[in-house]
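residues and backbone:
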Amino acid sequence: MSRIETLIGEAILQDAQPVEIKGVGTLQVAHPSTATIIEVSKTIGNLPQLPTIRGKEEQALQYVLAHARDCGVIGDLAAVLILGKKGIRRRIKKPLSANSWKNNCIFRFFSRKVYVRSLLATALLEEYTPEQLEEIITTCLGLQQIGFFLNITTTLNEANLLRQTKNGTTASGQ
């Protein structure tokens, strides 16, 4: 199989690719997809609007302590980048509750979809330092092929601007 066929097959199947992240190790990261970029954008939209502190670096400690409670979505962002859009909600086997033990203690399992995203986000926030989390996010963002997505959106936007309106002018007014 050629390289392009392999890449397309991996992208469609959403096989995870091993990515070496400095200070963290190797993580299995989902291949880039347009749906993942859109989900990342939605997640970033959930970050609070924080005031800038340029020129006031001596106040950085108070700034971080005042606003850190609102930034748990950073773990969600890292989880989306690692899992990809397809992987954030996955079917896994979970045991039934303890009071459902019957028939000589046979433990039954059921399969259901759970949001692995929140589980991974919590683990990332608890296990990694802020420096390591920043490295995870920037490395995974670099893999998302943002330039291609930007090219698609700008090309379509330009086509929309050149479209003629009902009165004969283009949307840009020419």
Notes: Residues 146-161 form the longest helix (16 residues).
